[in-house]
Amino acid sequence: MLTKRIIPCLDIKDGRTVKGVNFVGLRDAGDPVELARRYANEGADELVFLDITATKEKRRTLVNLVKEIAREINIPFTVGGGIKSVDEIEEILKAGADKVSLNSAIVRDPDLIIRASDAFGSQAIVAAVDAKRVGDHWEVFVKGGSEPTGLDALEWIRRTEELGAGEILLTSMDRDGTKSGFDNELLAEVNKLVTIPVIASGGAGTVEHCIDAVLAGKADAVLAASIFHFREIEIADLKNKMARANIPVRTIFEMTD
After folding, report:
1. What's the number of domains the chain is made of?
2. In terms of C-beta density within 10 A (0-12 exposed, 13-18 middle, 19 or more buried), how is residue 106 classed?
3. 32, 15 contact by CB (below 8 A)
4. Catalytic residues
5. β-strands 99-102, 147-152 pairing
6. Alpha-carbon distance 102 to 113, whole Å?
7. Which domain holds residue 197?
8. 243 vs 250: CA distance, rounded Å
9. pTM for this model (two decimals)
């Protein structure tokens, strides 16, 4: 089993970190720069920054905030939200991001994945997919989860890999913010279809949920927000318990009882 990653997520609205349930009911969770610094110091493997209202508000990602965060951390950093062209991807990478997360823009223009991966390498291109169960399948939603696309999520995810995405950030809209556990059925189905890493997002509430996402869902990484923001789970403790479950993790901590 390859080493698994723990990734805190900063959902950004109006320059602040926020968190809701099922993509609505947002509440303040703190200053993003302070949180980013804290997570880097506490042993997070990566950090994800999502400007969650940029696309809906038809504006660009907060580049200056990206620069501020990049100066404070020494771990890989993925940025998403409102990014819709190769030029904008270049601007975000130059601001200090290691990867960009693309969602609405690649649904509208799938060939953007090809152009972006050709320009910056597939390792820098993350296909973000917000999936919601509709009947007997999962459907892709865009614009911060507010707009259905009619796309079958499994088919779309397979296509993003074919076009050149290097990683999938898969968010279950049904589980997002509920702390009821990841959608391991969805994760497992996706991992049957693709060979690139899949990040599990939406539903983390306990250490066991994170372990199950890896063991049952076959996730390569687990992403969470509120459980870290509000210190319901400490990153060090999560890594220790995952290691005890025979899940390989990158760690700077001694394994203690």
Report:
1. 1
2. buried
3. yes
4. 11, 130
5. unpaired
6. 8
7. 5-244
8. 9
9. 0.91
- Within 10 angstroms of residue 240's Cβ, the number of other Cβ atoms is 18
Measure Cα distances from 174 to 24, 42, 85 in Å. Answer: 12, 29, 29
Q: Rounded CA gap, 149 and 84, in Å?
A: 17
Tokens 């968010």, residue located: 171
Asked whether residue 111 is assigned to any structural domain, the reply reads yes
The two tokens of residue 80 are: 């998403």
Give 159-216 pLDDT, tens digit per residue: 999 999 999 999 999 998 899 999 999 999 999 999 999 999 999 999 999 999 999 9
In a domain, residue 64? The reply is yes
Q: Which CATH number fits the domain that encloses residue 216?
A: 3.20.20.70
Residue 254 lies in a domain: no
Q: What is the b/e burial string over 32-67, where b = at least 16 CB atoms within 10 angstroms of the residue's CB?
A: bbebbebbbebbbbbbbbbbbbbbbeeebbbbebbe
